[in-house]
């Protein structure tokens, strides 16, 4: 970004008036640019602009702002979108002192943003460890290797390495105190009774109920990082701050596999394993497949990796198939699209 691109807060406010706030992807990008270039000073202006969108919700704006990681989008994105929308910056002669001041202010904002990124990353890692420890306690104390799951029965697949709750369990996750606590049985009822209303933004919960199937998520070394629950209706939940990136669930582990299938959902993975006998890696979603594939390639260089993608021709552009085929080309593996009926 050059000196002439620097915008004062008033100029930023005027520029945003030429950008519609209804498209969520654009909305998030603008927020990221504001946070990158203006730090927390940018929130008020971004939030003010956001209120022009049809789906604006104050709580959503605050939550998204907290989740934004500065540095991914720069001010140039705002300038480009505003210019496309008809904005023309009022040109005026700036004194050398004004230029020095604006440059110093921009550098200070970038420094603070970089410090915030570093602090946020360190906190995220601490929270991931806290959640992983709580999940490990749940696994050891409150889950069983055998149980009944209406979801698995409906899908017609068995439980491969998944677990079943012995009792109701809740993990409370407090990002302010940076801790995760486990509550079980009647303690869950007491926790909800004592929960402040409205619930504070820094307090999150992850519930495991009777009838859920619980999918452990581990890294290549076998370390547990998180748990996914799937209820009778197929709703899948994941704990806040649970580390998913690069981790997976094994089905039918083999020491030196000839083939390894990679799927998004558990039921698809179980179906492939039961049909083919291959070990299967469940990555949970196509985004995580991109992180899992390099680790598998490194750990099992002799194995044939088979990416089992989701094919949905009724969806415009069929993005699931396109992403799976692109990943297969990038990582030198095969993409297939099993016809397994209603599985996920």
Into which percentage range does the β-strand content fall?
Answer: 15-25%
Q: Count the strands?
A: 13
Q: What is the global morphology?
A: globular
What Rg, in angstroms, do the CA atoms define?
Answer: 24 Å
Kindly report the average pLDDT value: 89
Structural class based on helices, strands and sheet pairing: alpha/beta
The low-confidence parts are none
Instruction: Tell me the strand order in the biggest sheet.
Output: 9-11-10-12-13
Instruction: Examine the secondary-structure arrangement and name the CATH architecture of the domain at 246-344.
Output: 3-Layer(aba) Sandwich
Largest sheet geometry? 5 strands, mixed
Distance between the termini: 45 Å
Order of helices and strands: HHHHHHEHEEEHEEEEEEHEHEHE
* Helical content class: 40-55%
CATH topology of the domain at 246-344: Rossmann fold
CATH class term of the domain at 246-344:
Alpha Beta
Count of DSSP H/I helices: 11
Pfam family, one: Toprim_3
Domain Primase C-terminal: 15-82
Coiled coil: 96-130
Protein name: PriCT-2 domain-containing protein
């Amino acid at each position: 970004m050059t000196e002439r691109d620097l915008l004062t807060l008033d100029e930023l406010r005027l520029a945003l008036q030429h950008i519609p706030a209804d498209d969520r992807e654009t909305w998030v990008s603008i927020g990221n640019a504001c946070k990158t270039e203006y730090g927390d000073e940018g929130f008020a202006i971004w939030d003010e602009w956001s209120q022009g969108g049809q789906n604006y919700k104050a709580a959503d704006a605050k939550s998204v702002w907290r989740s934004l990681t500065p540095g991914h989008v720069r001010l140039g994105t705002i300038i480009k979108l505003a210019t496309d929308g008809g904005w023309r910056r009022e040109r005026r002669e700036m004194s050398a002192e004004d230029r020095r001041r604006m440059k110093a202010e921009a550098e200070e904002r970038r420094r603070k943003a970089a410090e915030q990124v570093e602090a946020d990353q360190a906190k995220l890692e601490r929270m991931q460890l806290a959640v992983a420890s709580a999940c490990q306690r749940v696994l050891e104390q409150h889950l069983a290797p055998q149980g009944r799951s209406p979801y698995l029965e409906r899908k017609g697949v068995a439980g491969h390495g998944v677990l079943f709750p012995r009792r109701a369990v809740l993990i409370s996750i407090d990002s302010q105190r940076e801790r995760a606590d486990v509550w079980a049985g009647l303690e869950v009822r007491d926790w909800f009774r004592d929960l402040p209303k409205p619930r504070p933004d820094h307090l999150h919960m992850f519930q495991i109920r009777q009838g859920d199937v619980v999918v452990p998520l581990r890294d290549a070394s076998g370390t547990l990082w998180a748990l996914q629950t799937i209820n009778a209706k197929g709703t899948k939940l994941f704990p806040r701050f649970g580390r998913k990136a690069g981790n997976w669930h094994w089905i039918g582990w083999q020491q030196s596999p000839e083939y390894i299938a990679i799927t998004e959902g558990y039921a698809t993975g179980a179906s492939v394993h039961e049909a083919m006998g291959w070990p299967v890696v469940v990555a949970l979603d196509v985004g995580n497949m991109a992180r899992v594939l390099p680790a598998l390639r490194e750990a099992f260089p002799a194995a044939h990796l088979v990416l089992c993608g989701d094919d949905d021709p009724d969806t415009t552009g069929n993005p699931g198939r396109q992403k799976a085929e692109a990943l297969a080309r990038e990582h030198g593996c095969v993409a297939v699209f099993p016809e397994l009926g209603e599985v996920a």
